[in-house]
């Protein structure tokens, strides 16, 4: 890492609650969480984990970024520096959340199977992933994305790992025109963090995105999904 540079978790922590996109994403995810014991995979700056903790969930967080776990500790969240594909634990969870994580993992099928085996019988997985494969570009490369997803690809990977998809929708149509112009036409990065630091603009965008998310479920640059563990209590073979 370049001296003086910040990890993604640190950057998100610096933006804090001004991050309009993260605020809306967290609100959408909170409406899907169930049970008591929750695992936040790829916790980042722990915005979601902290809100879950405040709502009296038992929260465990993991992230490959050690800085993310330093943030977790400061917020009173139990966390581990770990990769979901290699993390070993005897704990089982009612709900596992992987918000904008799968697209960073080379073997996403392995990650889904690992999550399956971390769930209690009838437990649920909540995912948020980037959508529209044709949008894959500079912004994805800068964030370390391996792929974007189609609805059918995500559903197929979940079902082949023993999940039943109960809820799947698109959101963040608001960013679609900007993303197409910047990443596909101008070949530039999407200025998400810079916009989030502009307080009045970020608050306005958050209100618009919240409104849009209530009326539009079919289009947008993210897919939000909830899937249920089906084959209980037998665990899948990870080989």
Can you describe what's shown?
By secondary structure, this protein is an alpha/beta fold. The chain has a single domain, classed as Rossmann fold (3-Layer(aba) Sandwich), CATH 3.40.50. It has ten helices and seven strands. The protein has a seven-stranded mixed β-sheet with strand order 3-2-1-4-5-7-6, with helices on both faces. The longest helix has 17 residues.
Give the gist of this structure.
The chain has ten helices and seven strands. The protein has 239 residues and is α/β, with parallel strands linked by helices. It has a single domain (8-229), classed as Vaccinia Virus protein VP39 (Rossmann fold), CATH 3.40.50.150.
Strand content: 15-25%
Query: What ranges have pLDDT less than 50 throughout 5 or more consecutive residues?
Result: 1-5
The order of strands across the largest sheet is: 3-2-1-4-5-7-6
Distance from first to last alpha carbon: 34 Å
Give the oligomer, counting copies of the same chain as homo and different chains as hetero.
single chain
CATH superfamily: Vaccinia Virus protein VP39
How many DSSP helices? 10
> What fold name goes in the CATH topology slot?
Rossmann fold
How much helical structure, as a percent, in the residues? 25-40%
